[in-house]
């Protein structure tokens, strides 16, 4: 029987090789999302969100229950601090919601156009700290607990043989602004005051790159840097606006990640087919295109399969409404058709109401 250290090294090397488009003994499988773990382990969503120590134990227990998976999606429940990445209030189970309901982003206009001037005049970090303290329902004690305990949580996962996929994250400024302002008002801002918005986005990007580089230095075996860019889908903007307000800083972020030696992991929610050719600019074997199931994964393979790793894409609907045979057959077909340079995963989060037998069917397709 292999030791946990041997399993850790085996899994880590398998994922690293796949990212570099090298051949491996089998396709790695890396589940995405954490909301399935309470159901899997019989824990209330409220307890999972409210108790960070418990959430670390729940994720670790759930990983073992999954079986032969190659990396963990996270080391603790980040639901209570998600407002820091979405610039929004959060509705949490046991607080604004029933105990067993999934957490929710409460998108409202919390930023004003005056905040653009504050960021330009005082810098993003100063604005951000004040925003967290005064605008969103973030418990700063919990945030400090996360900062203090996160290294131990990650070590606990690693010590049981699981690398962490996406232990480092960077947020594209489009996500902050389009939620803090609301998407509709942000769309008006880029029409009415494009120069100011662009300047603000440049400032945020530079600040986030600085923080990301430090996080990569502090991380243990960073497989990749997760790029949050849910509002950056090319279908939301005309091509010129997308190039200016999304691609420009996405390329800058990606180049900075590649410089660190970690892989850039694009979490591409919605349909990115119109923008796939842009990603050919990055060096071979340095990026992962992670689809939620909306972008046709076969078109990703056609456009980018010889340049970057593809991760996905068992859709949420299959986990909830499908059968184990359907999930297994779909997963097996992806493994066969995608070939080397493919990580089998869920298309975005495994939903909280997924059938456990369907999740295990996906995993078994990769570990057969």
Automatic annotation (TrEMBL):
Domain of life (superkingdom): Bacteria
Any one GO biological process: porphyrin-containing compound biosynthetic process
Keywords annotated in UniProt: Lyase
Pfam families: URO-D
Residues annotated as domain Uroporphyrinogen decarboxylase (URO-D): 181-367
Enzyme Commission no: 4.1.1.37
Gene Ontology MF annotations: uroporphyrinogen decarboxylase activity
Protein known as: Uroporphyrinogen decarboxylase
Organism lineage string: Bacteria, Bacillati, Bacillota, Clostridia, Eubacteriales
């Amino acid at each position: 029987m292999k030791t946990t250290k041997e399993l850790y090294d085996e899994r880590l090397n398998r994922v690293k090789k796949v990212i570099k488009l090298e051949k491996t003994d089998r396709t790695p499988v890396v589940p995405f999302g954490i909301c399935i773990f309470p159901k899997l382990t019989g824990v209330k969503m409220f307890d999972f969100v409210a108790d960070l120590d418990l959430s670390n134990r729940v994720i670790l227990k759930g990983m073992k229950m999954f079986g032969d998976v190659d990396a963990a999606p996270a080391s603790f429940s980040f639901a209570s601090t998600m407002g820091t990445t979405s610039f929004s209030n959060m509705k949490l189970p046991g607080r604004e919601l029933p105990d067993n309901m999934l957490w929710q982003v409460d998108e409202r206009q919390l930023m004003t156009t005056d905040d653009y001037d504050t960021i330009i005049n005082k810098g993003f970090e100063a604005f951000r700290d004040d925003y967290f303290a005064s605008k969103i329902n973030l418990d700063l004690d919990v945030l400090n607990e996360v900062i203090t305990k996160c290294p131990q949580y990650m070590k606990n996962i690693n010590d049981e043989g699981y690398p962490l996929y996406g232990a480092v994250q960077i947020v594209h400024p489009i996500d902050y602004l389009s939620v803090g302002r609301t998407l509709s008002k942000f769309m008006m801002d880029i029409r009415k005051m494009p120069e100011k918005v662009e300047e603000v986005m440049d400032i945020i990007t530079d600040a986030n790159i600085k923080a990301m580089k430090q996080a990569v230095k502090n991380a243990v075996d960073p497989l990749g840097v997760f790029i949050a860019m849910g509002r950056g889908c090319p279908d939301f903007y005309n091509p010129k606006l997308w190039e200016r307000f999304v691609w420009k800083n996405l390329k800058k972020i990606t180049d900075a990640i590649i410089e660190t030696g970690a892989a850039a992991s694009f979490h591409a929610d919605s349909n990115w087919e119109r923008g796939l050719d842009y990603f050919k600019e990055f060096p071979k074997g340095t990026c992962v295109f992670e689809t939620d199931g909306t972008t046709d994964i076969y078109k990703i393979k056609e456009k980018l399969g010889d340049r970057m790793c593809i991760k996905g894409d068992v859709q949420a609907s299959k986990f909830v409404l499908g059968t184990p045979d359907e999930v297994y057959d779909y997963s097996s077909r992806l493994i066969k058709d995608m070939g080397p340079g493919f990580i089998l995963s869920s298309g975005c989060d495994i939903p909280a109401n997924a059938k456990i037998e369907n999740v295990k069917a996906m995993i078994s397709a990769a570990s057969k």
